[in-house]
Amino acid sequence: MQTELTQQQIDSYRDNGFVVIENFLTPEELAEWRQSVDEAVAQRDDRKLADGSMRSGDSYYDKVFVQRINLWQDHEGMRKLMLDPRLGKMAADLAGVDGIRIWHDQALIKKPWANPTGWHLDNPYWSFSSRNAISIWVALDDATLENGCLYFIPGTHKTATWEINVGIGQNIGDLFVQYPEWGKMNSVPAPMKAGSCSFHNGLLAHGAGANMTNGWRRAMTCGYMPDGSTFNGQQNILSSAQIEKLKVGDVLEDDAQSPLIYHRSKPYVTAETAHVG
Ligand SMILES: O=C(O)CCC(=O)C(=O)O
Ligand SMILES: [Fe+2]
Predict the structure, then answer these.
(1) I need a surface site. Which of 90, 155, 166, 170 has the fewest CB within 10 A?
(2) For ligand 2, a single-atom ion, which residues have Cβ within 5 Å?
(3) In which element (H, E) is residue 105 found?
(4) Cα 46 to middle of ligand 1, angstroms
(5) pLDDT of residue 129
(6) CA 67, CA 84: separation in Å to the nearest integer?
């Protein structure tokens, strides 16, 4: 795994809101990631979350991608991959924070002829609000202009607000109704070879193209929460039982839900020590 970051990559991430890391995984690691993701997704059937509280159906959104969330919680191989402190350190170094927790991982698989992923921001969906929220997106197949690679609008993380966002709907440009200035800016495609990855800021405008091919575009992603982040009142992927116990402003520090996978000066959770909530 190519986990060393150059200062140039860090500066580029801070300025543009994203960075692409070529050849992130070795061919052997890529084979392991593919196998674990495929297995973990297959054992979920239609359950998006392990507890079955969110399920997929036949909607437009369900044909944007197959979305299976928090595979680290119910697949041992995925736990090993997602609770790797080297990933946490990369996210911490890019975001400029001391500690990193998993908010949620997600397999995002565009099947043949999948719908495009409309332009959106990630962090406003989540149960904490942080300018330093960050996600990794690992290409498990070559992601191309033809099959639905990511697109970013550089720098938008600097002017985004939590109050203004859209869902991933059928009008892929709805975000630009909300942020008309961004609608005049250029987007940048991020095609990636299988095994390469990108990191993007949780407030960066991004989307992905339709899959115009008969092949699959598999990706494994993880959204990260800086340690010390607090509950903002939104449910997102939390259960009703968890929400009942939380007040706005409470620090989100339940390692069984949001494990601390890396910290510069505190002990952190590993795949071996994890307790699954
Ligand atoms: O893979 C996609 O189509 C979208 C990915 C995305 O929105 C994300 O990783 O935040
Ligand atoms: Fe996203």
Answers:
(1) 170
(2) 122
(3) strand 99-110
(4) 19
(5) 98
(6) 22
Task: State how far the alpha carbon of 113 is from the alpha carbons of 63, 196, 207, 209, 212, in Å.
Answer: 9, 23, 16, 11, 5
Nearest-atom index, ligand 1, CA of 168: 7
Say how many Å lie between the CA of residue 19 and the centre of ligand 1. 14
Q: Which domains does the chain have, with CATH numbers?
A: 7-263 (2.60.120.620)
DSSP string, 114-179: PPPEEEE-SGGGSSB--TT-EEEEEESS-B-TTTT-EEE-TTGGGT--SS----S-SSTTHHHHH-
Question: Using CA positions, which residue lies closest to atom 7 of ligand 1?
Answer: 207
Matching residue, tokens 């609770």: 83
Between the two ends of the chain, the Cα-to-Cα distance in Å is 29
Could you tell me the sign of the dihedral formed by the alpha carbons of 152, 94, 195, 24, in that order? positive
Ligand 1, residues at Cβ distance < 6 Å:
65, 108, 117, 122, 135, 137, 206, 208, 219, 221
- pLDDT tens digits, one per residue of 155-201: 999 999 999 999 999 999 999 999 999 999 999 999 999 999 999 99
Q: For residue 5, which of 115, 77, 95 has the smallest C-alpha distance?
A: 95
The mean pLDDT value for 114-138 works out to: 98
Question: What is the token pair recorded at 171?
Answer: 């009008």
What pLDDT does 277 receive? 65
Output the pTM of the full model: 0.98
